[in-house]
């Protein structure tokens, strides 16, 4: 055996243990790979922390409820926000006039043509820096869908169908189908189309700044294993589809720096919940008292969760997650569905 060859069977020569230098990737306390973008988030304590970059944030359905709280939180933190409204133009204008760096634009995400022109507005607004954060929040609920359908089609048009010859259950189905179609288009296809149409801009932000985030606002109904039979099935089916889409998209972005997450709120005190639930309950204080944690979630609490996930959470770690934000309703749905105060 040549003297310089090592034998696998020979007893090893006593050698000094190798301690890698602290800067080495082999140092036990140093991860093997740290993306440069996340390194810059942890400045040396004695250095002056770098100024936080101003992010371009797009929020759908920002005129009221959870969306309005998200717009407000990002705007207060100094970020540029472009949000959409559908019918609440007054609310949108008030929010826009409160912050010079907030812009409102109209969108009906159930219409592909509206989504297409929205993407042009976003492109002009975001420019070369692109969209750092997209929050897909806009949706209809089991009750708010009725107004939407009423505004869109005053009288249902069933074409040449002779409805008088149909069983009454079929006629009822035809009436309900208008709501079902609206729920599926607005809640499931809308976010798919919006995300698709904005994808160039989101990719640009990820390339330029090293991080972009897409957050979907799902729901405990449809986004968890819990079943809520008191609501319209298509409402929860649309949210189940949205949750699936968030995971599908996350799987496509598993090797790049675009993070995709879904937050699934429970009973949150907004107009949607008031119309679908509180308005149908004779004793609201008793109902609320028997809900998880004896209260309703406030919109700003979901907004804070979105902000933390998209700005403050460690990059990449929550990619692909569906986060339950229901205060326990997902694990004890009976507190609502079997509630005596209903
Ligand atoms: N509140 C809850 O208890 C609860 C529970 C689980 C999940 N969520 C989810 O949380 C998100 C926000 O709900 P919220 O309670 O804040 O609802 P909300 O108060 O009814 O607000 C819904 C927002 O969506 C917009 N919108 C409605 N239809 C639209 C369409 N076709 N195209 C574009 N925008 C449209 C509305 O615009 P205009 O007001 O201008 O018409 C409004 O800004 C939704 O995804 C919802 O499913 C809510």
Automatic annotation (TrEMBL):
One cellular component term (GO) for this entry is: cytosol
Organism field? Gracilariopsis chorda
- Keyword Manganese assigned to the entry: answer is no
What's the protein name?
Protein FixR
Q: Where is the composition biased (Pro residues)?
A: 14-25
- Annotated region (Disordered) at 1-53
Entry keywords, A to Z = NADP, Oxidoreductase
Belongs to which family? Belongs to the short-chain dehydrogenases/reductases (SDR) family.
Which Pfam families does the entry mention?
Answer: adh_short
Q: Which GO terms describe its molecular function?
A: cholate 7-alpha-dehydrogenase (NAD+) activity
């Amino acid at each position: 055996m040549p003297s310089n060859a090592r034998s696998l069977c020979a007893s090893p020569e006593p050698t000094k243990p190798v301690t890698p230098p602290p800067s080495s990737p082999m140092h036990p306390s140093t991860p093997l790979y740290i993306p440069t973008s996340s390194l810059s988030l942890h400045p040396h304590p004695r250095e002056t922390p770098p100024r936080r970059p101003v992010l371009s944030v797009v929020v759908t359905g920002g005129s009221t409820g959870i969306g309005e709280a998200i717009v407000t939180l990002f705007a207060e933190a100094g970020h540029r926000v472009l949000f959409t409204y559908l019918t609440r133009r007054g609310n949108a204008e008030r929010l826009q006039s409160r912050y010079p760096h907030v812009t409102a634009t109209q969108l009906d995400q159930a219409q592909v043509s509206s989504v297409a022109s929205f993407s042009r507005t976003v492109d002009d607004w975001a420019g070369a820096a692109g969209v750092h954060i997209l929050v897909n929040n806009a949706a209809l609920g089991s009750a708010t869908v009725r107004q939407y359908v009423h505004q869109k089609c005053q009288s249902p048009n069933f074409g040449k169908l002779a409805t008088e010859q149909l069983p009454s259950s079929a006629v009822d189905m035809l009436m309900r189908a208008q709501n079902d179609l609206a729920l599926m288009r607005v809640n499931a296809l809308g976010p798919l189309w919006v995300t698709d149409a904005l994808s160039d801009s989101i990719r640009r932000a990820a390339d330029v700044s090293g991080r972009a985030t897409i957050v979907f606002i799902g729901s405990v109904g449809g986004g968890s294993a819990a079943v809520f039979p008191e609501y319209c099935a298509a409402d929860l089916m649309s949210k189940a589809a949205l949750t699936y889409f968030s995971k599908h998209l996350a799987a496509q972005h598993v090797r790049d720096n675009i993070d995709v997450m879904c937050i699934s709120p429970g009973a949150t005190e907004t107009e949607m919940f008031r119309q679908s639930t509180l308005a149908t309950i004779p004793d609201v204080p008793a109902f609320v008292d028997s809900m998880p944690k004896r209260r309703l979630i406030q919109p700003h609490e979901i907004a804070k969760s979105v902000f933390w996930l998209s700005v403050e959470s460690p990059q990449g770690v929550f990619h692909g997650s569906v986060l339950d934000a229901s205060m326990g309703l997902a694990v004890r749905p009976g507190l609502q569905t079997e509630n005596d105060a209903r």
